[in-house]
Amino acid sequence: MADNLTSRQRARQTRGVRAGGGCRFILACLLGALPGAARAQYPLWAFGPFHKPGAVNPILAPDPGATFRSPANDTIVRWEEHATFNPAAVVKDGKVYVLYRAEDASGDPHIGHHTSRLGLAESADGLRFTRRGAPVLYPDRDAQAPYEWPGGVEDPRVVQSEDGTYVLTYTQWNRRIPRLAVATSHDLIHWTKRGPAFAAASGGKYRDLESKSGAIVARVEGDRVIATRVNGKYWMYFNVPEMLIATSDDLAEWTPLEDDTGRPLRVLAPRPGYFDSWLVEPGPPAILTERGIVVLYNAGNSGTSGDARLPARVYTGGQALYDRRNPLKLIARLDEPFIKPGESYERTGQYPEGTTFVEGLVPFHGRWYLYYGTADSRVGVAVWDANR
Questions:
Q1: What is the DSSP letter of 137?
Q2: Is residue 148 within a helix (H) or strand (E), and if so which, with residue range?
Q3: What is the pLDDT of residues 269-283, one digit of tens each?
Q4: Is 36 helix (H, G, I), strand (E, B) or coil?
Q5: pTM > 0.85: yes or no
Q6: Environment class of residue 375 by beta-carbon count within 10 Å: exposed (0-12), middle (13-18) or buried (19+)?
Q7: How far is CA 9 from CA 4, 271, 280, 335, in A?
Q8: Which of 20, 58, 83, 285 is the most buried (most CB within 10 A)?
Q9: How does pLDDT run across 126-155, given as a tens digit for each residue?
Q10: Separation of alpha carbons 193 and 175, rounded Å
Q11: Among residues 42, 25, 1, which one has the least CA distance to residue 301?
């Protein structure tokens, strides 16, 4: 596709690192680069390069044999028959646990028209996983049923609180309004649903806001990713097609920040001519580092105003850096995706345009393990050895 590049895009290929954190050489910044070979080409704040281990990917695929009695309608369902994708990840007791979105084959054959539940899988090496036979979070006959049935529960992210409680952000989908919600657990199996994240904010102003993708700002201690206050508050990046931001005192009830006009405050937006020209959407928990808050985000490419080297509506991954003392202040942003669909399992399934939809990121045994959804159908893993 090189012949289709605009003059602006050709210029980006030849210039060095720009103010704002772009990569020095485009090809070296793509995930396909050899492990270790491209680290010098990344700005020091960025994560990567990540390598996709071919022998194990995809790490999770649909299982037509798994059954579960759905309490929402008292029927036996093949709860992960259709798709398994979009995972959160956490390290517990020396193992990696992945919470993944699983879809049954109910409804019509359109994306978002099946019922989703969250499954749990564990791994001693971060690469090979064993699944539980039943989902751990699902629509039930409870107070959240009006928000979660019949579409289900989707797209988790997870952190720990200071006391070790697991805090999950996820999307409630009743096939009318997607709502960002919170659940908590002490063992990753039994969850307490805390309801829509913004239900109490501003007198109910945001109760019906279309919202999703909550990435809470967290620090790393060993293999733990712990929600961390900045200036006395917890912070969370969220939503699509623009990234918004919210604060909380307790990790359960959140309040979106507003601009001078009373609208939710935008902290990241799509860029015409780039890989993130169609939409931006937070990925895993945002990591507080010495250089700032690193936000890995999912990016959609526009078919009319995007990067001509990429397919229209393809999902890739970007990175942005925010001030560690001011989560509103954008400092830098990669000009090229750090991960993109290239393998067959990333371009075949429900979403043939291709996705590398990042949601889970954990430090484990001295490396970083990134877990992502592929084509809305399977789960993949990519690994970065930060010591190389």
A1: B
A2: helix 145-148
A3: 999 999 999 999 999
A4: coil
A5: yes
A6: buried
A7: 10, 13, 20, 10
A8: 285
A9: 999 999 999 999 999 999 999 999 999 999
A10: 19
A11: 1
Mean predicted lDDT score pLDDT of the chain: 91
**Amino acid at the residue 357:** F
Examine the pLDDT at 21 and tell me if it is beyond 80: no
Task: Give the span between the Cα atoms of 50 and 146, in whole angstroms.
Answer: 40
Separation CA 363–CA 219 (nearest Å): 11
- Return the SS3 of 335: coil
Both tokens of 319, joined, read 């990175």
* CA 312/CA 229 separation, integer angstroms: 38
3-class SS of residue 147: helix
Output 358 or 39, whichever has higher pLDDT.
358
Tokens 């993949």 -> residue: 380
Place of tokens 């991954």: 317
Q: How far apart are CA 13 and CA 27, in angstroms?
A: 9
Which residue do the tokens 């020095």 mark? 24
Contact 145, 76 (CB under 8 A): no
Q: What angle do CA 89, 94, 97 make, to 5 degrees?
A: 25
Which residues on adjacent β-strands are paired with residue 356? 374
Which residue type occupies 185? Answer: S
Q: Tell which residue, 320, 264, 262, has the closest CA to residue 287.
A: 320
Distances (CA, A) of 69 to 72, 120, 121, 341, 347: 9, 17, 19, 35, 32
For residues 341 and 231, is the Cβ–Cβ distance under 8 A? Answer: no
Rg (CA), the chain: 20
Beta carbons within 10 angstroms of residue 63's beta carbon = 16
pLDDT band at 102 (very low <50, low <70, confident <90, very high): very high
Q: What is the DSSP secondary structure assignment for residue 52, as one 8-state letter?
A: -
Q: What is the DSSP string of 342-380?
A: -SGGGSSSS-TT-BEEEEEEEEETTEEEEEEEETTTEEE
**Contacts for 379 with CB less than 8 Å, ≥ 6 apart:** 58, 59, 60, 61, 84, 85, 86, 87, 98, 100, 371, 372, 373
3-state secondary structure 101-136: EEECCCCCCCCCCCCEEEEEEEECCCCCCEECCCCC
- CA dist 228 and 154 (Å) reads 24
